[in-house]
Design a protein that fits this description.
The chain is an alpha/beta fold. It has a five-stranded mixed beta barrel, surrounded by four helices. The longest helix is centred in the last third of the chain and has 25 residues. The radius of gyration is 17 Å and the shape is globular.
Amino acid sequence: MSNAAPDLNDPATDPYDVAKAAAAVIAERSGADHHDVALVLGSGWGETGDLIGETLTTIDNADVPGFAKAAVAGHSGTMRSVRIGDTDRRALVYGTRTHYYEGRGVRAVVHAVRTAAAAGCKTIVLTNGCGGLNPAWGPGTPVLIRDHLNLTATSPIEGANFVDLTDLYSPRLRDLAQSVDADLDEGVYAQFRGPHYETPAEVQMAKVLGADLVGMSTTLEAIAARQAGLEILGISLVTNLAAGISDQPLSHAEVIEAGQAAAARCGRLLAAVVQKF
């Protein structure tokens, strides 16, 4: 089966049908009738899959309906079925995500989340690399997402479906993560549309609104995950101080470099958390 059809942007296409078709391909390729937890690995989190357990199957995104190759440097264009520790449980590990700024539409942005739900996952971990507004959080600091500001001016939910986001980022899973690393701080993540970085004024606006972290992903996925009934853990890796917080210019190379430097720590942290689920 190819991802060439159907078209997620076609109003006649049911995105949940495409997610079911994607889950069927994953089940066939992996030999697992269901997965238990899904992970979306952003910048700096790539080593996590190796540390969770044995990778049993690697699947090219382009072979799965609705998915595409990685469009951002520092991301992997594959998904993996990983045995969690020495258990029979499986993790579905996405090495990349579709960002809203890629112009593929909101359905494509949240397709991995809906596919995870169709594959049987009950829990999802959303990670990202981001800019920090707290000078105490230097590059390489992981921060739990307590809440978010969706500044994309859109939603993945279609029609009159009113979804409660009060406790979107699971307090239970945040407590579990802090039981693994008591030094983990929490913060509010603000998603801008991108792909340009935020101006210093926009960063100050986000700060006034209550943000501690700024980036270009995650919130739309989290909303779709809640609609699908998944329990959500969000973790950001501060790869740089946001514009105006530091006097240094921003660059994607800096994001990748900071992510690589923190990869082992982040991977160990998240692997330990997932194994406790």
